[in-house]
Amino acid sequence: MKHVLMTLPYTSDALEPLMSKETLEFHYGKHHQTYVNKLNELIENTKYENLSLNEIIKTSEGGVFNNAAQVSNHDFFWNGLTPNQTNIPSNLEDELVKAFGSVEEFKKEFTAKAIGQFGSGWAWLVQDENKNLKIITTSNAQTPIQSDLKPLLVCDVWEHAYYIDVRNARPAYLENFWKLVNWNFVEKNLD
After folding, report:
1. Coil, strand, or helix at residue 5?
2. N or C: which end of the chain has fewer CB within 10 A?
3. CB under 8 Å to 95, separation ≥6 — which residues?
């Protein structure tokens, strides 16, 4: 099975001015594409060749794992953004309030963890096996899928996600991120 770069659910300039076309050209068009290309190269003629991304993530390590997880993490990240932000669906809002006390508390805690993630990585809203919501961070290519946690929302905090637009100001990037979250996508991921 050949893995392909996902098609963005919006045009490359649709997230401007919060996320520039130039950022998408580099982040999606170069970084994400490179992970896809490298994964295909690494799995050719191996036991991973015909597996899904999730199957590869759960059974591999090293370069194969890193590239498969980065493809999956980026696919999830792009789907979690939208130029047409809507209100938080009431079901999701209820779950956030139940878990964090309020939507604002959730955003505050998520932002703090995203900003506090040392080095490259990801901030996630996940659902555990008991359907409880949690905020976690992962380093490098790590993903909640490895821990049988269900991802609901992710923020990429690798520098290539924001350096062109806000340089090294991760807090400014998080401010913009909240204005782009696709709450309908997050809600669809809830069990």
Report:
1. coil
2. C
3. 133, 190
* Half-sphere exposure (Cβ direction) of 143: Cα atoms closer than 13 Å: 28
Contact 159, 120 (CB under 8 A): yes
Measured CA to CA, the distance from residue 108 to residue 131 in angstroms comes to 21
Residue 151 identity (one-letter amino acid): P
Q: What is the pLDDT of residues 111-155, one digit of tens each?
A: 999 999 999 999 999 999 999 999 999 999 999 999 999 999 999
Residue 173: name the closest of 185, 157, 152 by CA.
157
**Binding-site positions:** 27, 74, 156, 160
Condensed to tens digits (0 to 9), the pLDDT of residues 46-102 reads 999 999 999 999 999 999 999 999 999 999 999 999 999 889 999 999 999 999 999
* Exposed e or buried b per residue across 94-125, where buried means at least 16 C-beta atoms within 10 angstroms of its C-beta: ebbeebbeeeeebbebbbebbeebeeebbbbb
Domains of the chain: 21-80 (1.10.287.990), 90-190 (3.55.40.20)
Whose CA is closest to 79, among 179, 32, 10? 10
